[in-house]
Specification:
The chain has 190 residues and is mainly alpha-helical. The protein has two domains: 1-82, no CATH class; 106-190, Serine Threonine Protein Phosphatase 5, Tetratricopeptide repeat (Alpha Horseshoe). The chain is built from nine helices and no strands. It has helices at 2-16, 19-35, 39-58, 64-81, 85-98, 105-121, 125-139, 152-161, 169-183. α2 packs antiparallel against α3, α2 (19-35) runs parallel beside α4 (64-81) and α5 (85-98) runs antiparallel to α6 (105-121). The longest helix is centred in the N-terminal third of the chain and has 20 residues, at 39-58. It is elongated. The termini are far apart.
Length: 190
């Protein structure tokens, strides 16, 4: 049933010249399939959304890039649910690289955090450490009153657990704590 609904929605969007709405139809179908735990079908629809959004970018449509970012976020979440951390990581790295400018600071924070999560689950703690610091760097661009309401405390927790062996653990944790206090405030710990 969802496949017919999806196809009809895409057909209507094409006829009306609403290519951004075709992306929305792909995303909605992907979300529906994800809720049914049909990950492969969800990924198919999210890939279709990303492809269509890339077409929008090539046409100069202002919604192209934001829709690509949303597509990567949804596909990455689906891949994490399937424990396919390598492909999820690729999604989040692509998302991070697209998340530029002040309007995308939260997207950058989340993309770097989730890429770090994937790297950690793949056993690459060094890359996880690097990604989480990139998330911190992205978060510096947020308004101070917004930062405590983001996932930044989770990033700090991850950094505390990922201190590399070549660093003094005490000094590294003091540095992380000081950075989190500066960005989030006292009591940032989860």
């Amino acid at each position: 049933m969802i496949h017919k609904w999806h196809d009809k929605a895409v057909e209507v969007a094409k006829k009306a010249g609403w290519n951004d709405m075709a992306v929305t139809a792909h995303m909605a179908a992907g979300t529906f399939m994800l809720n049914l735990k049909q990950n492969e079908d969800a990924i198919y629809y999210y890939n279709s959304a990303i492809d269509k959004a890339n077409q929008l970018v090539s046409e100069g449509h202002y919604l192209g890039a934001p829709l690509i970012i949303q597509g990567y976020a949804a596909k990455g979440a689906t891949l994490i649910a399937a424990k396919n951390y390598q492909e999820a990581c690729d999604c989040y790295l692509n998302m991070a690289n697209m998340s530029t400018g002040p309007e995308n600071i939260l997207n950058a924070l989340e993309a770097w955090r989730l890429a770090g999560f994937c790297f950690r689950n793949m056993g690459d703690k060094s890359s996880a450490w690097e990604c989480n610091w990139k998330a911190v760097n992205a978060a510096e661009g947020l308004a101070p009153d917004v930062r405590p309401h983001t996932t930044l405390p989770y990033v700090g927790k991850e950094l505390m657990e990922l201190v590399p062996r070549d660093k003094d653990p005490y000094e590294a944790k003091v540095e992380i704590n000081n950075k989190m206090v500066a960005l989030v405030g006292d009591g940032w710990e989860l």
